């Protein structure tokens, strides 16, 4: 049965209602039946709590600018599902999306007739992505994990060129564990025998877990320490800073984000491409140029004059968001906020109330089933001494915020990538660039 685009998307969104988590052997079987062959790709595999999408995007940008064909598999999407499957920096077409959907659908039907489980939502999309990338014959595959790493369905490949682990913080504790060490162990599950691992060494506990796992796998480690990023300067659009380490002295990196947290992410992307230089032939200057040209929706994105969308979605992300606000130094800023219930939202709201200097806070409810009612969000803000205006509908809340915004005043929208996706849909995905 052939479905329209709308029917296919609807089917995919229904999957979580009738599936449960499958093991990696199930994913391998799905890929085997789709005739996906690991040897067709040169894989860069990225895990982490925050920043992995940004790292993946920057690596893809450098490869694309240097005529290296690449597929980028990322999540979540912000507006359209095709965003998860990018070929040379551009999301796949609706036609390619539908062709992949139906190919996987036919395979899944046969699997179910043989008594095998239906793929999960993410597993189905992963199968689609691999089918698209193989058909397009991309050379490089930049692969972002969905949840964790060790048991994530992206962890079926055994010989990537490089594994990367971005910053690690407490997240999805019901699935990944309730300590940094447990979460780091899940992320470190992507480390492979003899494959170098590049990682953010900003957390001592996570660093210990990652280095121990790498040692067991005889994988050479390349930690990037926070104190190796020096002398940042912000000019209103770009942050310029220097990266210093034993094997790369005084490299000036320029990033197009008003976000200090992107310094580490872009350094990881830079260092990854430097490590892969013997493979790609891409020189240092071209790597730096690609990073400077990287654009990434929903990450301290200026969508209009002094209007910023940031997908901070956990406590560590909110800390980083507030650092970005401090860098911009706005006068009497407005905050538009919403969040989902499976995050530590009370702590996130406390940070926003206590660290932010907001002239006005507006709260709304995400349409996702995990969305927290705006009234509940406002109650928590009030508990921490910050009054909030409640507007349940996100479109009306955004329009209210724009109406109240004075000339030169800044509006910051944050709390969830799903929320930012809703806002981008409202604004038509427009960017100030």
UniProtKB/TrEMBL annotation:
Positions of the Mur ligase C-terminal domain: 298-416
Name of the protein in its database record: tetrahydrofolate synthase
Keyword Lipid metabolism: no
Catalysis: reaction(s): (6S)-5,6,7,8-tetrahydrofolyl-(gamma-L-Glu)(n) + L-glutamate + ATP = (6S)-5,6,7,8-tetrahydrofolyl-(gamma-L-Glu)(n+1) + ADP + phosphate + H(+)
Source organism phylogeny: Bacteria, Bacillati, Bacillota, Clostridia, Lachnospirales
Domain of life, per lineage: Bacteria
Domain Mur ligase central: 134-270
Organism of provenance: Maccoyibacter intestinihominis
InterPro entries reported in the protein's UniProt record: Folylpolyglutamate_synth, Mur-like_cat_sf, Mur_ligase_C, Mur_ligase_C_dom_sf, Mur_ligase_cen
Pfam families: Mur_ligase_C, Mur_ligase_M
């Amino acid at each position: 049965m052939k479905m329209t685009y709308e029917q296919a998307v609807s089917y995919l969104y229904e999957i979580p209602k009738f599936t449960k988590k499958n093991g990696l052997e199930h994913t391998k079987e799905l890929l085997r039946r789709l005739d996906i062959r690991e040897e067709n790709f040169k894989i860069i595999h990225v895990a982490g709590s925050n920043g992995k999408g940004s790292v993946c995007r920057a690596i893809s940008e450098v490869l694309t600018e240097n005529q290296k064909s690449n597929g980028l598999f990322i999540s979540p999407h912000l507006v359209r599902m095709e965003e998860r499957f990018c070929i040379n920096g551009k999301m796949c077409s609706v036609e390619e999306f539908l062709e992949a959907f139906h190919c996987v659908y036919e395979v899944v039907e046969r699997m179910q007739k043989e008594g095998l489980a239906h793929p999960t939502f993410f597993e189905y999309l992963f199968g689609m992505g691999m089918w698209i990338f193989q058909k397009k014959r991309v050379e490089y595959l930049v692969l972002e994990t969905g949840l964790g790493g060790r048991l994530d369905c992206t962890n079926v490949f055994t010989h990537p060129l490089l594994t990367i682990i971005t910053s690690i913080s407490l997240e999805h504790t019901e699935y990944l564990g309730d300590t940094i060490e447990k979460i780091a162990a899940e992320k470190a599950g992507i480390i492979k025998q003899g494959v170098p691992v590049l990682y953010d060494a900003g957390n001592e506990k996570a660093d210990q877990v990652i280095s121990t796992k790498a040692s067991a796998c005889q994988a050479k480690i390349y930690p990037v320490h926070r104190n190796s990023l020096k002398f940042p300067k912000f000019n209103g659009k770009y942050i310029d800073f220097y990266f210093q380490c034993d094997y790369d002295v005084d490299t000036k990196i320029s990033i197009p984000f008003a976000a200090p947290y992107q310094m580490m992410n872009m350094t990881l992307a830079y260092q990854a491409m430097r490590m892969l230089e013997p493979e790609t032939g891409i020189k240092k200057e071209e790597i730096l140029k690609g990073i400077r040209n990287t654009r990434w929706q929903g990450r301290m994105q200026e969508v209009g004059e002094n209007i910023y969308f940031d997908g901070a979605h956990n406590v560590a992300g909110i800390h980083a968001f507030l650092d970005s606000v401090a860098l911009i130094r706005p006068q009497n800023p407005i905050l538009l906020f919403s969040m989902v219930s499976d995050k530590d939202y009370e702590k996130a709201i406390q940070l926003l109330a206590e660290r932010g200097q907001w002239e006005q806070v507006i709260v709304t409810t995400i349409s996702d089933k995990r969305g927290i009612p705006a009234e509940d969000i406002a109650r928590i803000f009030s508990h921490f001494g910050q009054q909030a205006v409640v507007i349940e509908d996100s479109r009306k809340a955004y329009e209210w915020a724009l109406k109240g915004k004075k000339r030169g005043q800044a509006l910051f929208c944050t709390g969830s990538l799903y929320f930012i996706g809703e806002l981008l849909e409202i604004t038509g995905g427009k960017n100030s660039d």
